[in-house]
Amino acid sequence: MRLFRPLSRGVVVSSVGVGAVAVAGVVVAAVHFAGNSAHGSSPAANTASPPPPTVLSVAGNHRGKVPWNKPLVVRVSHGSLRSVEVDAGATLIDGVIGAHGTVWRSQTTLVPLTTYVATVTYADGAAQTHTATLKVVAADTDKHLRVTLSPGDGNVVGVGSPVIARFTRSVPKDQRANVEARLAVTTTPAVVGAWHWISDQELHWRPPTYWKPGTKVAISATLDNFYVGGGVWGSGSHSTGFTVGDAHISRVDVARHQMYVYNNGKLIRTMPISAGRDKYPTKNGVHITFEKAQVVTMDSATVGIPRNSPDGYYEKVYWDVRISYGGAFVHAAPWSVGQQGRLNVSHGCVNLSTSNATWFYYFARRGDIVDVYNSGASPDTADPGMADWNMSWAAWVAGDANPSPEALAMHPKLPHDSEPPAPAASYTPPPQSSPSPSPKPTASSSPKPSPSPTH
Predict the structure, then answer these.
(1) Which structural domains are found in the chain, ordered by start?
(2) CB of 243 within 8 A of CB of 367?
(3) Residue of 257, 331, 347, 455 with catalytic role
(4) The pLDDT of residue 429 is above 80
């Protein structure tokens, strides 16, 4: 949107026609003076008083700005309006001249920060016709709806990464289809997809199954001039994009106490793990890796377990890859190496040896799949880290306020069913490669855990 800087005199006025025109702020004064008679009578002989000046004004104008939440009103005094045409860029604004011909009022309120130009044709007190141009800018609202799009910046992400739109305010249900219409997802190669409202402030888009490696995704949002209601206006127009990298899919088998890591369908590493104990089970289902840190301070008190209780903990934990908003990580747990591959003793996280955790830390990227099998705990579909891939396509599309016919017509299998199969019971793990040399983690690299990790 191109905004014009208001002039110091408030409104730009131009006038053409018979009579004199005086300009003061938003006022046009057109005064008709009687001329000399055809018989050459002297000025002193003409005693008739001149008509009062004709004044044009815009209601509510203050230094060239008018309220956005009121109609635009053009008035004339000591004259009458013949026509009023108001445009905002390429858009004409409808309005009506009142019965007395002295007031024109728009039929709608205005759009914040929009420039309005009114071309007014009017008659002065002497019935002379004039044309004037008035320019004003609608003031801004103090309530905006903005959106953050991710992933972006050309990043390379995993095959499970959804497109995420996070809003600064709640979006009412009756406006969600309109919001979706102002968002666009374009993929190369083209794929069918659908939106799903995770909450009233978070919206995800994904295809029916995991992305194909190499897919390029462009995302755009245009919220300018969009009225949400309740005084809230959309703000901002921007775009971003990302590329889908190799298919990193890890199967965590809670019953076998093993983690199988696949790259593009090929098993490249098998690692013994310890998952959540019966009291604190690791959630079943597809998880997405979305954050990692070399050091995280894990505090049992933040999840309701007193630090000084038998199950309590408060310590720095290394080589952490987060797989749920609820606080589940794949991380190094040197204290449970003796149980890894044999018993599940964690508080819900996936425990690895330090060398295996270091390797996985550098292997993992945002949007990779970590799928947990054979746990007694169901997926938490209210958790954005697990919501995207643990429901049927029909359930996913049901969360779209305006799904496409193509999306509605699809009946794919669950993504879970398209993953590489687990190795046979007699499987012999391949030799393990050594992890890449890595810097020693320090406490300074630790992010503030939010929400709380579960150790």
Answers:
(1) 15-34+50-138 (2.60.40.3780), 144-244 (2.60.40.3710), 248-445 (2.40.440.10)
(2) no
(3) 331
(4) no
